[in-house]
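Recall the central idea of this unit: under ordinary conditions, the amino acid sequence of a chain determines the structure it adopts. In this exercise we apply that idea directly, starting from the sequence alone.
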Amino acid sequence: MPAPILIHVDYSGEFTVVFTQDGSPVDLSDAECIQMEIFDTPGSPLGTFDTDSDPDNFDTSNLGSGELTFKWTSSTFVNETYLNGAVTAQHSVRFAVETGDWAAPGRVIPNYLVAVFSE
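Accordingly, the structure predicted from this sequence is:
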């Protein structure tokens, strides 16, 4: 399991995910939309971001190499939602990819990540 992603909600930052299959990067250049869901219980997201509605939060220039970068600023996350009064909180993150073959809600990529949110 990869190391948790650290997200300081009061600062700007970014992280890059490389989607792989059998150890090799997956070409996602034909992706129509990629959604990132932050959740504690699958299907009940605390928040979602996608490349269509939130293009400023994503760098999709390397999708052919399976790379997607998520970028945030201090105004991206609502502290009450992600921290709920705590100094740190941990949530799961997953991605769904929509293509011509995988219609909405898309194909969920099985690699779940852990994100630690902090002030």
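The chain has a mean pLDDT of 89.
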